[in-house]
Amino acid sequence: MLRLFTGFAGALFKGLYFTMIAIMVIRMFTKKKESLLRRFLCTSYRLYAAILNWLDPYIKGYLGINILDDGYPRVIAAICLSLGLGYILFSLLHMRFRFWITLALIAHGLFVGKQWDLILNPKDFQMGARIDE
């Protein structure tokens, strides 16, 4: 009976996860005015912000650290979240978690953590130099 329940719960979790990923990908491709990289970063920011805002009171209560402050706690939390979500995604897809993927996820988490306040403001977040000034 327990095996049946865990199998059902696992299948339900995978179905919800893949449905959520499909909805996020559809939302990313339907907006025309932003680049794909910017939409990926905004989606990552929204996901990380939702998780970190939920975890912040617990971590603040147990460790006394505010993970949403500027500086190292937010960057380290974003890197850990990026690695954790990447590992979960690759585990669900039964793919190997290679070293270069780890480096890419660390770079992604570092960028999202450092640019936390600037990602959703389109005029403040620019990749490259502005030539119209």
Characterise the protein shown here.
- With 133 residues, this protein is mainly alpha-helical.
- The protein has two domains: 1-30; 33-122, no CATH class.
- The protein has four helices and no strands.
- α3 packs antiparallel against α4 (99-114).
- It is globular and about 50 Å long.
- The protein starts with a helix and ends in a 19-residue tail after the last helix.
- The model has no long low-confidence stretch (mean pLDDT 78).
List the helices and strands and how they pair.
Layout: H1 2-30, H2 36-63, H3 72-92, H4 99-114
Helix pairs in contact: 3-4
- By DSSP, the count of extended strands is 0
Q: Give unreliable regions as ranges.
A: none
- Rg, alpha carbons: 17 Å
**SS strand fraction:** under 5%
Helical stretch count? 4
- What is the mean pLDDT? 78
Structural class: mainly alpha
Please summarize the sheet with the most strands: none
State the end-to-end CA separation: 68 Å
SSE ordering: HHHH
* Tally of discrete structural domains: 2
- Shape field: globular
Helix content: over 70%
